[in-house]
Design a protein that fits this description.
By secondary structure, this protein is of the alpha+beta class. It folds into two domains: 119 residues, Diaminopimelate Epimerase, Chain A, domain 1; 135 residues, Diaminopimelate Epimerase, Chain A, domain 1 (Roll). It is built from six helices and 17 strands. The chain has an eight-stranded mixed beta barrel. The model has no long low-confidence stretch (mean pLDDT 97).
């Protein structure tokens, strides 16, 4: 295949390994089923595909199982590749504007700003959750039950303390996987500790990878919830997967700005 491949960890910090992504820079378009095959072979939570086209870059995201509508950590990884590797040979590309790069996606144009060495800010849409009832199969499969439930693309489950988020498990995978949420998943979250305003984890039914290490797009729902609850538009967050990941969130109108650091592996 005529392409370049980069391995990037997104949302890394001291004590946080972040979430791994493969970024594939295509020289020409390839079929969707080939992209899915590559993503499955890569075996990481998300593979991003960048294609140079007239007027900029097109960006698509695939898990090992399906194409996604939006992915935060693979977008941050793609921005790192764009600034670190593509810009020097493609400086006239209109995708670049000052310290920003724009990608054409299924969700429209997504802008990512380079804030400094390997530090990037995603400009994503707010996806505010509404109170909802959790499917019984998901509720029964969780080792610890939530106190509140909301629904946007993802279910957002609120717990009373961060220990519950650390300890909760999908104790019946077979039952959990009877629910198909499409591109969505299950966020579990609670008030934070120390420098963190809130904590979270993310699980996906029927997925090859049950728990996502760091889920940038989940913060489109997490950030507005915690901003309203805490009375603050600026928040620090950590995702408590085995890898862990650190994010800074800012709410401004109907947009959420998610900042994190990238590191090539």
């Amino acid at each position: 295949m005529d392409c370049l491949l980069y391995n990037v960890n997104a949302f890394v910090a001291e004590g946080c390994k972040g979430s791994p992504a493969c970024v594939v820079v295509l020289r020409k378009e390839i079929p969707d089923d080939r992209m899915l095959q590559i993503a499955s072979e890569n075996g990481v939570p998300e593979t991003a595909f960048i294609l140079r086209q007239d007027g900029g870059y097109r960006l698509r995201w695939f898990t090992p199982d399906m194409e996604m509508d939006l992915c935060g950590h693979a977008t941050l990884a793609s921005a790192h590749v764009a600034f670190a590797h593509l810009r020097k040979n493609d400086a006239e590309n209109p995708a670049f504007c000052g310290n920003s790069v724009c990608f054409e996606t299924r969700e429209g144009v997504i802008e990512v700003r380079c804030e400094g060495e390997r530090l990037y800010t995603l400009n994503f849409p707010v996806r505010k959750g509404k109170p909802a009832e959790l499917p019984k199969a998901i509720y029964d499969s969780l080792s610890i039950k939530p106190s509140e439930v909301y629904l946007s693309r993802d279910y957002l489950l609120i717990y009373d303390d961060c220990k519950a988020v650390e300890q909760v498990e999908v104790c019946d995978r077979r039952l959990f996987d009877t629910v198909n949420l499409g591109e969505g998943g299950v966020i579990v979250s609670a008030p934070g500790y120390g420098k963190y305003d809130f904590v979270s984890r993310f699980f996906t039914p029927q997925a090859t990878i049950l728990e996502d290490p760091v889920t940038g797009s989940a913060h489109c729902t997490l950030a507005p919830y915690w901003a309203e609850r805490l009375g603050s538009s600026m928040m620090n967050a950590v995702q408590l997967s085995a890898n862990r990941g650190e994010l800074r969130c800012r709410i401004e109108g109907d947009r959420v700005y998610i900042t994190g650091r990238a590191e090539e592996s």
